[in-house]
């Protein structure tokens, strides 16, 4: 949990039926003091909006969220899951099974605010030729791709790597006639050996994807879904440009540029993140029920790695 510098307002405190504290909502507008892998610094010169932080203690994420969305009780919102894990089954893999989704998208605009609201073009101006997850996590992701991707050099297959950079973690030697990368830094994209074309575009400014309907067989996104400030718009666009039954794979870990990740992500944990990404698929519409997969190679010893995927509905 981030340690908060000068938190300002305790806005909601509720108790569960057992009397345990279940929700604390803090509003604050300062930088978190938290270690994170890629060394981003808080931009104290930029305008930073107040952010809501959801600290659930003994709270049920789904119960609280559904209760809030349905108006059936509860004065606050808990976005911290307490899935009951079955033996030898990851809670991440359980959280999207048989979900009773709220009628409406449960998040608000402020949930997608960030500590650093300065232009992403400035933040990503300098290339970073580094990897943002460790080697075991990379190998786990590459192995997963090798199992679900169409065979290399399949005629007619087109792939899109969203929020791409100098490496996409595709299997060694993997090729398709069309592999497009969209990212923020041209120098990084130029270095990516799997791309046949690249486009520089800030999805937080313009979430419209510049492709025709039913273009791609596979869309990937590696450890970047947590930076999307307009996720529903992006996921609706993904659904539009995927071919019927096309596959969208969102992968994430717990490594991030903390100041650029959205509030709802930095305030919650790994299980919640799977639910959040699943909600993007669900509320975008036109996708099959999303599925979460825990591919963490060495739990507790190396970076965790998670997948939430879905396919475009055949009838969409």
TrEMBL record:
Which InterPro entries is this protein grouped with?
Answer: Methyltransf_11, SAM-dependent_MTases_sf
The UniProt entry, under Gene3D superfamilies, shows: Vaccinia Virus protein VP39
> Which one GO biological process term can you cite for this protein?
methylation
The segment(s) forming the Methyltransferase type domain are 181-249
Report whether Transferase shows up as a keyword of the record.
Answer: yes
Record keywords: DNA repair included? no
Q: Name one GO molecular function term.
A: S-adenosylmethionine-dependent methyltransferase activity
Instruction: Check the record and name the Pfam families matching this protein.
Output: Methyltransf_11 (PF08241)
Keywords carried by this UniProt record:
Methyltransferase, Transferase
- In the UniProt record, the signal sequence range is none
Q: Which PANTHER family match?
A: OSJNBB0011N17.9 PROTEIN (PTHR43036), S-ADENOSYL-L-METHIONINE-DEPENDENT METHYLTRANSFERASES SUPERFAMILY PROTEIN (PTHR43036:SF1)
State what protein this is by name.
Methyltransferase domain-containing protein
- Recorded source organism is Carex littledalei
């Amino acid at each position: 949990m981030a340690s908060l510098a000068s938190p300002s307002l305790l806005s909601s405190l509720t108790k569960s039926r057992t009397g345990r504290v279940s929700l604390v909502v803090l509003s604050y507008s300062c930088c978190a003091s938290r270690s994170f892998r890629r060394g981003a610094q808080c931009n104290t010169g930029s305008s930073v909006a107040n952010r809501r932080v959801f600290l659930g203690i003994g709270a049920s994420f789904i119960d609280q969220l559904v209760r809030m969305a349905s108006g059936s009780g509860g004065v606050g919102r808990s976005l911290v899951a307490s899935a009951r894990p079955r033996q030898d089954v990851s809670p991440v893999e359980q959280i999207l099974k048989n979900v009773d989704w709220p009628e409406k998208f449960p998040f608000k605009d402020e949930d997608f605010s960030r500590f650093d609201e300065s232009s992403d073009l400035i933040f990503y101006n300098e290339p970073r030729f580094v990897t943002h997850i460790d080697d075991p996590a990379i190998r786990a992701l590459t192995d997963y791709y090798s199992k679900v991707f169409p065979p290399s050099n399949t005629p007619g297959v087109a792939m899109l790597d969203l929020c791409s950079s100098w490496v996409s973690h595709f299997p060694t030697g993997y090729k398709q006639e069309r592999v497009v990368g969209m990212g923020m830094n041209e120098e990084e994209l130029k270095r990516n050996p799997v791309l046949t074309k690249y486009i520089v575009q800030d999805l937080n400014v313009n979430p419209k994807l510049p492709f025709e309907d039913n273009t791609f067989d596979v869309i990937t996104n590696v450890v970047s879904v947590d930076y999307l400030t307009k996720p529903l718009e992006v996921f609706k666009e993904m659904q539009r440009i995927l071919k019927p039954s096309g596959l969208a794979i969102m992968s994430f870990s717990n490594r991030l540029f903390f100041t650029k990740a959205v509030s709802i992500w930095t305030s919650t944990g790994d299980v919640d993140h799977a639910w959040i990404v699943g909600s993007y698929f669900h509320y975008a519409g036109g996708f099959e029920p999303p599925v979460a997969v825990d591919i963490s190679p060495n739990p507790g010893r190396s970076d965790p790695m998670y997948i939430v995927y879905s396919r475009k509905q055949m009838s969409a």
